[in-house]
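dumping this here so i dont lose it again. seq + smiles for S-adenosylmethionine
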Amino acid sequence: MNQDYQGIEQLLAKKIGLGRDKIGQRQLIKAINIRQKACGVNNVSDYLKRLESSAHEFQQLVEKIVIGETWFFRHREAFFLLRHYVQTEWLPSHSQETLRILSVPCSTGEEPYSIAMTLLNSPLTSGQFAVEGMDISQTALTIAKKGIYGKNSFRFHDQVDHEQFFQVEQNRYQICESIRHQVKFSAKNLLSAWPPNHPPYDVIFCRHLLIYLDEVSRDRVLKTLDRLLSEGGLLFVGAVETSLIKGDNFRFLSRPSAFAYQKVPVASSDLPLTPPQPPKPDQRSPLKKRPSATLPKPPKKEIQLSPLEMAQQFANQGKLKEAVQCCQTYLQRNPIDAAGYLLLGEISQAQGNLEEAQRCFQKALYLRPNYREALVHLVLLRESQGDRQGAAILKNRIQRLDNLQG
Ligand SMILES: C[S@@+](CC[C@H](N)C(=O)[O-])C[C@H]1O[C@@H](n2cnc3c(N)ncnc32)[C@H](O)[C@@H]1O
C-alpha cells in the first residue's frame, strides 16, 4: 500500500478506530477506489485530502467498508441469559423502574429487535423496558428503521417466532408494530464523546465491533462502556471477543455460549454476583472425594464442590487460570466426559486460546456426537475464522438435530 492509502488507513483508525488489516487490504483499497471514482478525484492523494475536509465523504467511505453481518438471535444463549437476569436479578429490585438496554453497534436492527422480542416474552410489560440501537452506518440504520427483512436475517429459523413478531409475505418479514415501538435507533460513532451525564444502561450488547478495532480504540470503547453501564449490569460481547475484555471491572459469566460479563459493584468486588448454577446432570462429578490438595481453594468454603463445579465457579468469577486447572484435574479423572471438554473449551476461548478451544469442542463432539452446545461453539469459531463452508456444514448438522428433536 502506498503512503496515501496508508494515510487513509490512519484516518480511519483515528476517527472510527478501525485496526490495520482488520477488513483486509484488498477490500479497503477497492472501497477507496470506488469512492475516489465516484467523487471524480484523480488520485488517492487528492482523495485523502477530500476525506480530511469533507465529513460527508468520510461517511460515504465508512458506508463502503463497514461489515454489517448480523441476524436475529445471534448467539441465542445470550438472549436466554438476558431473560434470566431480568427475571431473577433486575426485576425483583427495580420493579418500578424502566430497564434500559443499548445495542451498539446494532447494524440493520436484528439484534435490538431480538432483545425486544425476548423481553416481551418475559415478565416485563412493554412499558417496563426501552431498547436503543446505535450504529455508525446510516445505510444500516435506514434498514433497521424500516424493519423489513429477508431470509438471510434468520440463520436458525426455529429460534424466531415468526407468527408472533412478523407479518410474513413470501420471503419478506416485516417486524410488527409492537416490537418496533420498543426500539429507538440513532446514529452514533462509538468512539465519539458521550454527554457526561448520560443516564446509564442496565444492559449493553456490544458484539462484533471490538474485533475490528485497534488496541487503543478498543480500550477507549471499553472505558466508555464501563461508564455507560450501571453497577451489576450486563455486557454482552461476541464469541471471539471475550479475550479482549481485560481488567477487574467486568466479571465473566460462564453461561455456555452467552459471552456475557457483569459489571462488578464497587462494594462487593470479591463476592460472586450470581450463585453458581446447579450442575447439569452430565456435569455432576461422579467423584465423592474431597478436591485434591493441589487444587486452588474453592471460593465458598462451606460448599463442597466437585472440580468441575469449582471450575465453573472460578470461571464465573473471571479466575480463568484456576478454572482451567480445575477442569484439567477433572478431565484427568473423567477423560470421557464431554461436558468437561465443553467447559474447558469455553474457558480457553475466554482466554483467547482459540486453538485449544477448538480442540476441546471437537473432543466434546467426538465423545457426544449430538452435543448441540459443542456444535454451536464450533460454528461460531469457524465463522470467526472466515470458514463459512465449515460453519455451514455444522449448521446443517444442528438443524437436522433440532428437526429430530421436534
Ligand atoms: C458485524 S456488525 C455487528 C452487529 C451486531 N452487533 C451483531 O453482533 O450481530 C458491525 C457493525 O459495527 C458498525 N460499526 C463499525 N465501526 C463503528 C463505530 N466506530 N461506531 C459504531 N458502529 C460501528 C458497523 O456499521 C456494523 O454495522
